[in-house]
Sequence to fold (467 residues):
Amino acid sequence: MANKLFSGTLILSLSNSSIRIISFILLPIMTMYLTPSDYGIISIVVLINTFISIILNPGLISATMRLFYDYETEQDKIELFGSALILFLFISVIVCGFFIYYGEYLSKYFLSEFPFYPYGIYAIIIAFLTQTTKLWDILYRIRNKIISIAIISFINVLINLSVSIYTVVYLDYGVYGRILGMLVASSFSFIFTFSILIKYTRFNFSLPIIKKIIFLGYPLLFGIIATAILNVGDRLIIEKFLGLAKLGIYETAYKIGTVPIFLSVGFKKMWVPYFYENVKSNNIKDIKKDSKAFISILIFGILSLLIILPEVYTFLIGTKYWEGIKLVPPIILGTYLLLLSIITNAILSYDKKFKLITLFLIVAAVTNILLNIFLIKYFGIIVASIATFFAYFIQFYLSFIYTKKTKHSLINSKIFWGSIILLIVSSLHIYVYGVYFSTYILLSKIIFVILFAFLIKKIFLADFKFK
Fold:
């Protein structure tokens, strides 16, 4: 079971993080050909895309996956996905039409420099095109067709990369070329996944099932909105008060700081069904062992990134973005806490405590927004990265305290606090030296990382077998 979990985690991490992988691969090229203001435009496109995607999917994906395990017959499962597809299409047409019509007015009110035409329109279209992919992804994960997901994601990555590089580097389209790459890749995914869903469901649906999806998913709506605020709300405030150029620098730092997410997203997608199945069969021992393994690997990965961060900036990031390196450590720490929440939120979801998940996220989101609004004008973009850390800390710690009271508690307090202290100490060299490079220092860091990996294996993974 553990072998299935972690092999699936690896495949899905690579395949479902296609957008992050593309952004990371393109980072050296784009920071060479695009200005910080161009990167600011890309950040706002992602912000609009994320916000609209939330409205198009108010908890429906999570609700569909949870309801799947309540149905026994294949016909009921077909009707479940058919109902979800009908609901997606209905909501998407209405919401996207609204934002295309009123988007320019809203953009002028909330943003200061962003040109809604054409970039805002492209963001809305991309949001529409990506919705069926999410539903298809759930269907194939449940059916354990992980390789198929990986293949389609790889093709999507290839299209996005090819179009972006060709239009930015060779045609000199600038930021328009990067967004065009996103649009073409999203169009491919929509055509493919929509045809698969139609073939599977043949538009079979049930009004009672639609009501169940809405009823179960709706409480997550505010939590999902809160998640979006945590992810992109700071960008909105940076653009409003500091401009697109500062936003571009922050966006670059954020991409580096959230690298662990695209390496762990497969774990999130595999962990939820894995956790549900094993709790249902009362196999708690394996769950505890595998969650401990994930936490240990996560600590090692994030510590390694913090140690080699100056080298990452030296080799991957254009010099006009180097001031952003000091923004990265708080973002990395926040990312660590966000990934730990995968474990605690799975416990809450299994117990159908969706309202608690929502409440914790809202508290975190409000904290993030208030810190940014009141402090960013005086202390600059460093406030955004520190606010990210505090917000994710609050969100995780509330769920951590609650789940410790349940019989499914999986995270040890000593490991949690010890890891936080370790990661904070490991980031201090960045504030002392900034961006620097030395062959001797790099070799020393590599030796340290190898020794730490050995220590993790001996202490935390002694009983875990990698196959």
